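Submission checklist for the structure archive. All mandatory fields must be present; incomplete records are returned to the submitter.

[x] Identifier: Queuine tRNA-ribosyltransferase
[x] Organism: Yanshouia hominis
[x] Residue count: 376
[x] Sequence attached
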Amino acid sequence: MYQLLKQEGRARRGIFTTVDGVFQTPAFMNVATAAAIKGGISALDLQELHCQIMLCNTYHLHVRPGDEIVKGQGGLKGFTRWPGPTLTDSGGFQVFSLASLRTIREEGVTFQSHVDGRRIFMGPEESMRIQSNLGSTIAMAFDECISNPAEYEYTKRSIARTTRWLERCKAEMTHLNTLPDTVNPRQLLFGINQGATYDDLRIEHMKAIADLDLDGYAIGGLAVGEETGIMYHIIEQIEPFMPKEKIRYLMGVGTPSNIIEGVWRGVDLFDCVMPSRNARHGHLFTWNGVINLNNAKYQSDSSPIEEGCGCPVCQSYSRAYIRHLLKAGEMLGMRLAVQHNLYFYNTLMEQIRAALDDGRFAQFRDEYSERLSKRI
């Protein structure tokens, strides 16, 4: 469970203890959508990249290979060989963003698989059963991810339904954790705050779900196209109503600057596909900003991605070589680039935690928040 160690303003330094191990917060979750990080990164690689926690996708693993198959392999821990904590999202975001045809009812959502077109039904109970089969450390509640901008009255009805779904998720998880064949009988449940970009609805929903005394709370439905300033504003409105003694998770965020600003506003946990996705296209993070290896100036550059970087890639390979691999379509190029970016993100979190430990996070933010967004 979450232990708050100290604060600097709203920024929090903590520790989260689970059945699968302890992780320090603020933390970044490395996104292994289909039980692997795109770019040829294995769960064993993640340990070398200073990863603390891995995130997998409920919807994708339900569709392929099937959550029952993963359960038969001992859950995600046995399937992937990742020994530490894992979080599975509920599938809600994918249901509402990928599925082309869907029908929302009180019971749940009927939708069409993006893989083979078959009709699938998912509601709170189904999502909890799938995540129980996956055996993740943390399961996310099933919710409706409302797109921005959204109509006010629809948003109000939606968050009321999401609260009812959350109550059903909690009841179903309580039941599943008592079954003799459950992969992880100590699985945790996080609720998700929704409300589009309406301050009053966000606060109303946060109060409602806080009353359910869950293991953690997430902020969903942001970083989906709205301006960054709006996202920061919403976090600031919600934060006073988030339980202080529970971990806080900002879903799908984001850039290094977004993370620093999220920590500044009281967030503990982040995830994003950006470090791996951008790496596969040659966009690499450094402490002075982002470089694009596709640029011709790196063609004969014998220096590492970043001087002084401790990642396994920068210890051995040049910008010129990695650029060549990417241009030649060699998988090794993507693997090396992704390794560097994930190492950078996890090291960023280590530096944030160190700054909080020393009471100098405000200075750290002033120095790096804008700098890390710069394109070199």
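[x] Structure attached
Curator remark: Residues 39 and 331 are 7 Å apart (CA to CA). Residues 2-272 form a domain with the TIM Barrel fold (CATH 3.20.20.105).
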